[in-house]
């Protein structure tokens, strides 16, 4: 589904991604772990071109999206993204947050948009919040709405950048529960997270990033029980 070849990203003199090569299969759940500043967010953002790579290629569903003539908006519709800070529109209620893009970008009718939104709200367990505003919701509820909003575009891939890092501990579980459901339905997911229990249970593959490189990758068992690199061991020792 996604093929990344020789991906490099520099911010001025700072070389943040150093020749990344990786492939992600349809239906795969990939968890990315690694120290702060190792380039995890930048990598995710290069996948959907929120950051433009300095060099290298990203092929998504057979299309080299890094070549200039491609339609970035079309591509982004196919890749949902969920951020640490929710990024809901504060002046819009939940239904409007969810239906804005499908109506504007996909030309969905208001009725169809609302029908889809209500189904998604049911899936994330928040049907009763359809007409609430973001400020009336807890962090965990906001993040579940953000997931519903991304799903409303019917993406083929979901990218998550530390979706539970800004939450109070008691709200982490409800968000991971929704993500688990998505994974079990076969959604292709790339997830940056420090939730190792979740990674062990749900990930098909764990990638350890360090200093802009993929240092090692493997099944959760391999990475957590038998890490090969001293840097991986160090990192796991600090967070487990
Ligand atoms: P991680 O998500 O693993 O913590 P990031 O991808 O956010 O790492 O950042 C990797 C490095 O790139 C850090 O040194 C960070 O300061 C730098 N960086 C990230 N975004 C930018 C930017 N827009 N401009 C300049 N430097 C950036
Ligand atoms: Mg980050």
Automatic annotation (TrEMBL):
Keyword flag Ribosomal protein: no
Keywords for the protein's UniProt record, in alphabetical order: Amino-acid transport, ATP-binding, Cell membrane, Membrane, Nucleotide-binding, Transport
One Pfam family hit: ABC_tran
SMART domains: AAA
Organism listed in the record: Thermohalobacter berrensis
Family: Belongs to the ABC transporter superfamily.
Domain spans labelled ABC transporter: 2-236
Regions annotated as coiled coil: none
Primary localisation category: membrane
Gene behind the chain: glnQ
GO cellular component: plasma membrane
Recorded topology in the membrane: Peripheral membrane protein
Identification of the protein by name: Glutamine ABC transporter ATP-binding protein
Classification via InterPro entries: AAA+_ATPase, ABC_ATPase_HisP-typ, ABC_transporter-like_ATP-bd, ABC_transporter-like_CS, MetN_ABC_transporter-like, P-loop_NTPase
UniProt-listed SUPFAM superfamilies: P-loop containing nucleoside triphosphate hydrolases (SSF52540)
Gene3D superfamilies: P-loop containing nucleotide triphosphate hydrolases
Subcellular localization(s) per the UniProt record: Cell membrane
């Amino acid at each position: 589904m996604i093929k990344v070849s020789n991906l490099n990203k520099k911010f001025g003199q700072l070389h943040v991604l150093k020749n990344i090569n990786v492939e992600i299969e349809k239906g795969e759940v990939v968890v990315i772990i690694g120290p702060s500043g190792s380039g995890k967010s930048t990598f995710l953002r290069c996948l959907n071109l929120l950051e433009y790579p300095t060099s290298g290629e990203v092929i998504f569903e057979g299309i080299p999206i890094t070549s200039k003539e491609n339609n970035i908006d079309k591509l982004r519709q196919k890749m949902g993204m969920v951020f640490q800070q929710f990024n809901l529109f504060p002046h819009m209620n939940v239904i409007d947050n969810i239906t804005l893009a499908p109506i504007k970008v996909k030309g969905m009718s208001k009725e169809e948009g609302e029908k889809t939104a209500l189904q998604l709200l049911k899936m994330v367990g928040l049907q009763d919040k359809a007409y609430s505003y973001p400020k009336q919701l807890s962090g965990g509820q906001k993040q579940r709405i953000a997931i519903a909003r991304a799903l409303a575009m019917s993406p083929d891939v979901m990218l998550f950048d530390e979706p539970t890092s800004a939450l109070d501990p008691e709200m982490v579980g409800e968000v991971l529960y929704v993500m688990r459901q998505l994974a079990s339905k076969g959604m292709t997911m790339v997830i940056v997270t420090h939730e190792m229990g979740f990674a062990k249970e749900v990930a098909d593959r764990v990638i350890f990033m360090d200093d802009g490189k993929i240092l090692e990758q493997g099944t959760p068992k391999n990475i957590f029980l038998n890490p090969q690199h001293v840097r991986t061991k160090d990192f796991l020792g600090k967070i487990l």
